[in-house]
Design brief:
The protein has about 170 residues and is mostly helical. It is about 55% helix and about 5% strand. It has 6 helices and 2 strands; from the N terminus they run H-H-H-H-E-H-E-H.
C-alpha cells in the first residue's frame, strides 16, 4: 500500500509464474510447511495487487478475471511441481518416463477457471489426468503402480491446496 507504482501496475499475465518461481526458490526444498505458507502469502499479496488495480480502475472487470486466472494457473503449476518432487523422492518416477522431463500428467480446469471467469473467492474445479500405461510401475526404492503413483500425486496436490494454515487455505 505504500508503493503506488507496485499496486497500480499489476504484473503482465505471463509474469505470475516467474514471480512465484523466484519466491519459491528461496524456500528450502524439504520445508513443506514454509512452502505452503509462502504459496498462501504470494496468493494473498497478488490478490491485493489485483484488487487495488480493480478498485482504482487500472483493470477493467474482464481483465481482473484474467489476472485471477493467470495467478491460479501459476499456483497450480507450482503445486504440481512441489507435489511431483515429493512423490518422486519417495517412489521414483514411472519407468516409462526415465530420461524424460515430461511428467505425463495434466491438470485440467473447468468451471469458472476453465472459462477464465474467476472471481476473488472462486473455487477451482480440477481434473487430474495421466497418460502412462497402466501396467507401468515406478523405478524408486518403493515400487508402486503408475495408477497409485498418480493418485498419490493428485492427493499430495489436494493436501497442499486444502490444508488450513494460519494464513488460510490456498
Amino acid at each position: 500500500l505504500i508503493d503506488p507504482n507496485l499496486l497500480h501496475n499489476p504484473p503482465a499475465l505471463s509474469n505470475y509464474r516467474d514471480e512465484l518461481r523466484l519466491v519459491m526458490l528461496r524456500i528450502p526444498e524439504d520445508d513443506l510447511e514454509a512452502q505452503m505458507d509462502t504459496l498462501r502469502q504470494f496468493k494473498q499479496a497478488q490478490h491485493l495487487r489485483i484488487a487495488v488495480a480493480d478498485i482504482v480502475g487500472v483493470l477493467p472487470l474482464t481483465k481482473v478475471s484474467d489476472h485471477l486466472t493467470a495467478l491460479a494457473e501459476a499456483i497450480i503449476i507450482e503445486v504440481m511441481n512441489l507435489s511431483w518432487q515429493q512423490v518422486t523422492q519417495r517412489f521414483g518416477i514411472p519407468s516409462s518416463l526415465a530420461g524424460s522431463e515430461d511428467k505425463n500428467f495434466s491438470v485440467i480446469a473447468y468451471g469458472k477457471m476453465g472459462g477464465m471467469e474467476l472471481g476473488y473467492s472462486s473455487d477451482l474445479d480440477l481434473v487430474f489426468v495421466h497418460g502412462c500405461q497402466l501396467n507401468d510401475v515406478t523405478n524408486g526404492s518403493k515400487v508402486i503402480s503408475v495408477a497409485q503413483f498418480y493418485a498419490k500425486l493428485a492427493q499430495r496436490m489436494m493436501h497442499i491446496f486444502n490444508t488450513r494454515m494460519s494464513n488460510g487455505l490456498l
